[in-house]
Amino acid sequence: DVTEIEEKEAQAKQEEQIMKEQELSNLLHEKRYLKALGLAISLDRPHTVLTVVKAILREPEGRRRLEENLVRLRKDQKEAVLAFLVTWNTNSRNCHEAQAVLETLLKHEAPDSLLQFSGIKPAVESLLPYT
């Protein structure tokens, strides 16, 4: 019978998830946006990433701070943000943030580098009608 072991593993995962959520909340409160972005991306939370982006843009010189944070992300994190912004861009309430992130990616990534992103073709095809 492995039921007890599976229950303990599920409980451990749930506790870890709660701790990460609390850490994310603390990072946002402390305005440590780079770590908050990384954690939200690792948790695969597009809405939370959007919340972080909105918080950054509300800061004085928000565009510059957004650039500073996005440029420092790893390639896989940038790919995830690109996938997230495709969805954000379809909603008029979030399109400005999506365009700000897209502008930063296009400005700071070389075209050859962008072509290496996984899912770049469908992302561009999805962005064109709304951009």
UniProtKB/TrEMBL annotation:
One of its GO terms (biological process) is endonucleolytic cleavage in 5'-ETS of tricistronic rRNA transcript (SSU-rRNA, 5.8S rRNA, LSU-rRNA). It is found in: Nucleus, Nucleolus. The keyword Transcription regulation does not apply. Pfam families: Utp13. It comes from the Eukaryota. Keywords: Nucleus, Repeat, WD repeat. InterPro entries: Utp13_C. This is TBL3 protein. It comes from Pomatostomus ruficeps (Chestnut-crowned babbler). The lineage of its organism: Eukaryota, Metazoa, Chordata, Craniata, Vertebrata. The gene is Tbl3.
